Description:
This protein is an alpha+beta fold. It is built from 2 helices and 6 strands. It has helices at residues 39-57, 77-87, and strands at residues 2-10, 13-21, 24-30, 64-71, 95-100, 110-117. Helix 2 links the parallel strand 4 (64-71) and strand 5.
Amino acid sequence: MTTRTHTETMDGARRSLVCKTGNWTHFIGLQPRNLDGDIKEQARDVIARLDELMAEAGIGQSDLFTVTIWLKDMRYFAALNSVWNGWVDAANPPARTCVSGELYRPDLLLEIVAVAYREEAAA
């Protein structure tokens, strides 16, 4: 069974931020809520959003399987990494890639897509 939550419309396009099927949970198109800050502030904000959605889904950091981060400009890479490295589970980091490209709004500096895998509890 597939469940979809946090369904919203962004500029006319309907989407679900969280889709879950079986042991897999996908967190798609996560953006910072406050776009006034610099890359570190936006990174902290979007990571806090990911934390909230993971907690709601019963997912922990060690369950993160892959993370893709879209950056507006690769000049932000080092600053992003300073925030990321302060947050990520150092013992269980997910596979991660970071790419650069034009984003939805000019003041949006990054967007995150994450996939988690949660083992079923032993019976």
